[in-house]
Amino acid sequence: MCEAVLLYPRPLARYPGRLLLLPLLPHRPPLKPLPSEIWSRIFVQALFEDDKDAQPHNAHSNLRHSCLSLMLVCKGFKEVAMPLLYSNVCLHSVNSLQKFTAHLHSADQMWDSIRRIPYSTPGRWVQVLDLSELLAELDSSAYYAVNALLTQLFPLLPFLAKLTLYSGFLLSYRALASLTHRDGSSNIRALGGIYYDPFIYSAVATGEDPFVQLLRVCVNLELLEVTGVGLDDTDLESHLDNTENLKIPHIAVPLYLPHLRSLTLLSMPSSLLMYVLLHSPLPRLQNLSLTPYDDIPFPASLSSLFLEKHGQHLRTIFLSTPKSWPTHYHPSPTTILHTSPHLRHLSLEYPLPALTITFQTPLTDVSSSFILPLQILSIPRPNSDFWVTLERLLPFLPSLQIIRMRDVRWLRYGMTSRAQEAGIQGEMREWDRRLTRRGIRLLDGRWKESRGV
Q: What distance in Å separates the CA atoms of residue 443 and residue 405, rounded to the nearest whole number?
């Protein structure tokens, strides 16, 4: 309590008075310190919301600098900013990966069993690990060293939720086993940039495919991106001749992936992984990216059968062939709109299929038409033959709003009218005029509209 303050207005008077000074406002109590959880939410809101529209590399760099600045403010801010700094890790060199692994391993060795949490820091803070830039520029001679580091690193990340690799880097069997048989495998939500070679994995596996074993423990997986080895066109005839000799594997227990929403299977005509996914229930699958192989029969190709099996609940289908030299395109099934009647976005690949939208009614067994909710249709380039197919489909696509030419861009503003009417630009202008009359917008690969001549 504060002492009373007395005022002496006339100290030299014969009878001086004394006045008690009363405060006009009550004494302000000291503020209670905010818990670290609230400070963490404040920092997350300030750091992540501002960079959500930035490029991934710039966003990660800004987050790193912001966390380092906060750690210099005070000890309390350092305790809050340190987990945020390690929550999203993006490494760009083998040396960085080696130092990061050594630091986590040293911290884990010093972690005693008396602590309340069994997992060491900072390993338990890591939730996102992005190695795509590191592996994209990696020399093949360093594959063994990187796989050895990953084998040591994965067990130190019990709360890892998102792992991004590179589609040209093959995880070793030991690294896959390290990722599978560790604490917290069920915490993985996204696996991206995975390169899958069924011939190598089946050769080293003594039981089930090692990547299928990984998916069995990732029961909360929401996103999966896998790229296969493709199909060698020089051996295509012999591959088709041996189709009858292929053995269909027996799947004892299907995968349990109730939360899988987005699936990418590129350059993969057939594999044990694809066969297991084909015969597993995927109730929440909405986005599918697939390389079509409709000209190759079953069981040498499972792509068309995969669309038939899991197409009922799909909202988005991207048919894509990874670019290589030379790029060999395979046809797509013409019944996509029949097997996937709830599509909102369909992206087609060369050669463009002659799509059909009729189906057999179960009672009358007579072909009848139906209305589709398709809103966006993407094709590589305008094609006169496909325009005939599109014109036939338009009456049954009342919700169609956008047609996108993903491999073409509009000429920049200021080019002459003759340049804008020549070649592929002229075909796009003609499509734009026809579609505008129907209330449909024509966009280029950057999702831009034409500015006019």
A: 6
CB-hemisphere CA count at 13 Å for 366?
A: 2
pLDDT in tens, 103-135: 999 988 887 766 677 788 888 889 999 999 999
Q: Give the mean model confidence (pLDDT) for residues 368-373.
A: 73
CB-CB contact of 43 with 50 (8 Å)? no
58-84 pLDDT tens trace: 556 666 777 777 777 777 777 777 888
* Chain length of the chain: 453
Distance CA 271, CA 198 (A): 6
Helices and strands counted in the chain (H then E): 16, 16
Decide: 45 and 33 in contact? Cβ < 8 Å.
no
Beta strands in 187-309 (DSSP E): 190-195, 223-227, 262-266, 287-290
CA–CA distance, 8 with 299 (Å, rounded to integer): 105
Measured CA to CA, the distance from residue 259 to residue 222 in angstroms comes to 5
Neighbours of 259 (CB within 10 A): 16
List, in order, residues 6 or more apart from 181 with CB less than 8 Å away: none
Specify burial of residue 14 (Cβ count, 10 A radius: 0-12, 13-18, 19+): exposed
Closest CA to 87 of 132, 127, 131, 130: 127
Spatial CA neighbour of 157 closest among 131, 196, 135, 133: 131
What integer pLDDT is reported at residue 178 of this predicted model? 94
Q: How far is the C-alpha of 285 from the C-alpha of 278, rounded, in Å?
A: 12
Phi, psi of 88 (to 5 degrees): -125, 105
Strand 367-369 versus strand 316-319 pairing type: unpaired
pLDDT higher at 401 or 32: 401
Cβ pair 328, 233 in contact under 8 A: yes
Rounded Cα distance, 338 and 384, in Å? 23
Q: Tell me how far apart the alpha carbons of residues 216 and 443 are, in angstroms, rounded to a whole number.
A: 41
Query: Alpha-carbon distance 441 to 453, whole Å?
Result: 16
Beta-carbon contacts of 303 under 8 Å, excluding residues fewer than 6 positions away, are: 265, 268, 269, 290, 291, 292, 293, 294
Give the sign of the dihedral formed by CA 425, CA 431, CA 433, CA 436. Answer: negative
Nearest to 77 by CA among 46, 49, 113: 46
What do you get for the CA distance between the two ends of the chain, in Å?
81
Dihedrals φ, ψ of 341, to 5°? -75, -10
Spatial separation of the C-alpha atoms in residues 10 and 7, rounded to whole Å: 9
Determine the Cα angle at 100 with ends 99 and 104, to 5°. Answer: 115
